[in-house]
Every structure is written in structure tokens, then in C-alpha cells.
Amino acid sequence: MSTEISNSKRVLIADDDAVIRQIVTRLVEKEGYKPVICNDGREAYQTLQSDADFRGAIFDMMMPYLQGLEIIRFMRTERRLMRIPVMMITSEQDLQLMVNSFSSGATLFLPKPFTPENFQLTLRLLLSNDKRTTPFKNGKH
After folding, report:
1. Which of 63, 70, 82, 130 is the one with CA 20 to 30 A from 104?
2. Start-to-end C-alpha separation, the chain
3. How far apart are CA 3 and CA 83, in angstroms?
């Protein structure tokens, strides 16, 4: 497999909760993508400053140093990062956070706790912007 193909299958994940990172990582791998893991918002920001070759990104809303919304706002001002679709995940039960996510440029919003099936469906929708892929395997919904 060439580097170009493998890089186009990478998904950036940033969450300060180790358990959530592990769950999300496994689910992303199960869908055939390569996760690139960040432990907090600052790590995600630093990664994006030097690397823009991601198929998608998944950010926790509330993280130390930089929160998910701040990272999205940065991405939406950088031409090389604008095309990366972003899923926001959060355990906060505040409708205004969802509104703020979308107004900041998030593509999708998934509240925690989520089921693996819920996450996988949302991930497929996030990454389905490529015309070569379909969000549902084998036509299943």
C-alpha cells in the first residue's frame, strides 16, 4: 500500500479521556481507518499545524489546553484544513453546545454516551463525503 493511500485513510482523534480514546480508536480501526491519537486539544492543534492529511477528525468538546470548538475554529481559518470533516463528541447535556459546534464548523455532533453502532453510523456519515465510498456497508442502515 502506498503512503498516499494509507494517509488518506487516517482519522485524527482528540479526547482527554483514555477510555473514550480507546473505544473510539477501536471503532475507527473497525471501519478500516488508521487513527492518529491526541490526548488533549493542544496535541491536536500541534498535529494539525504540521499535518493536514486526514480523512476526518473526532474531537471531544471539553479538553484541557484547547477545547474542541477552538480547534475547529482554527481549522476553518486554514485553507489546508478546511476540507477535513469534524465530528464533535461530548458528555455535556447542553443544546447550546451542539448549536455552537455547528456554527463553528463541525460536520456532525454525537452526544456521549453513545453505542458502538451509533458511533459507527455517525463515522460513516462523517467520512462519506468521498464519492468513492458509501456510508453504509452492504446497503445496511
Report:
1. 130
2. 30
3. 20
DSSP string, 56-103: EEEEESS-SSS-HHHHHHHHHHSTTTTTS-EEEEE----HHHHHHHHH
Q: Residue 78's domain is classified under what CATH number?
A: 3.40.50.2300
- Containing domain of residue 66, as a range? 3-127
According to DSSP, the residues that pair with 84 across neighbouring strands are: none
For the chain, the domain total comes to 1
Nearest CA to 32 among 64, 3, 8, 16?
Answer: 8
**Residue 102: inside a domain:** yes
Query: For residue 108, what are the β-bridge partners?
Result: 87
Which residue is listed with cell 499535518?
51
pLDDT tens digits, one per residue of 78-91: 999 999 999 999 98
462519506: which residue's cell?
128
